[in-house]
From TrEMBL:
InterPro entries: LpqE-like, Lxx211020-like, PCuAC_sf. It comes from Hirschia litorea. PANTHER family: BLR7088 PROTEIN (PTHR36302), COPPER CHAPERONE PCU(A)C (PTHR36302:SF1). This is Copper chaperone PCu(A)C.
C-alpha cells in the first residue's frame, strides 16, 4: 500500500466517521447536559439553603423609664443544625441569651450558654421564654433600628436589623424586667 492510498483510505474513514457522528441524534447529549445543569442548580440551591440564617420579627423592647436594661425578641431559622452562642450590638455593653423557667412556682430568668437550633425549625425568642437580655443599652427611641450580630458554633455570623418598640401584649406576651 502506498502512502497515497493509506492517506486516501484514512481520509475516507475519517469522513465517514464525521458523517455518522454529524447525522446521529444529539438529543441524548442535550438531555444529559440539561439534566446536569438541573442537578448543578439543585446543588447550588441546597448549598444556599444550608447556609441560610433567617431572622424575623426582630424587636428590641423600648427601654422603660430611662433604664439601661431591655430585652430582644425574634425568630431564628437556620438551613443547617447549629448552636447560637452569642449576640452583640454597638448600642449596648453586653447581650446575654436568657430563658425563663418556673422554679417552685416562681418565674426566674437564667442565662443560657447557647441555644441548639435544628435545620428548618424556627426557634422563637419571645417574652416569657427565650430572649436576649440587653445590658448597658444606650438611649433608644421607639422606631430606631439596631443592628444585632449573632455568632454560631460553626463559626458563622449574621447581622439582623431590630426595630425598637413594644411587644404585642395583646397575645399575652407581656414581659417585665
Amino acid at each position: 500500500m502506498t502512502a497515497y492510498n493509506w492517506v486516501k483510505g484514512f481520509g475516507l474513514g475519517c469522513a465517514a466517521f464525521a458523517m455518522i457522528a454529524a447525522c446521529s441524534p444529539k438529543s441524548e447529549t442535550v438531555e444529559t447536559t440539561a439534566n446536569q445543569a438541573q442537578e448543578d442548580t439543585q446543588k447550588v440551591d441546597e448549598r444556599i439553603a444550608e447556609s441560610a440564617i433567617i431572622v424575623s420579627d426582630a424587636l428590641i423592647r423600648t427601654p422603660l423609664g430611662g433604664k439601661n436594661v431591655t430585652a430582644g425578641y425574634f425568630s431564628l431559622t437556620l438551613g443547617q443544625d447549629d448552636r447560637l452562642l452569642y449576640a452583640s450590638t454597638d448600642v449596648a455593653e453586653k447581650i446575654e441569651l436568657h430563658t425563663v423557667e418556673m422554679t417552685d412556682g416562681v418565674m426566674q430568668m437564667r442565662e443560657m450558654e447557647g441555644v441548639d437550633i435544628k435545620a428548618g425549625q424556627a426557634v422563637v425568642f419571645a417574652p416569657k421564654g427565650e430572649h436576649l437580655m440587653i445590658f448597658g443599652v444606650k438611649p433608644l427611641n421607639e422606631g430606631d433600628i439596631v443592628e444585632v450580630t449573632f455568632g454560631f458554633e460553626s463559626g458563622r455570623t449574621a447581622t439582623a436589623n431590630f426595630t425598637v418598640g413594644m411587644p404585642d401584649v395583646s397575645k399575652g406576651a407581656g414581659h417585665n424586667h
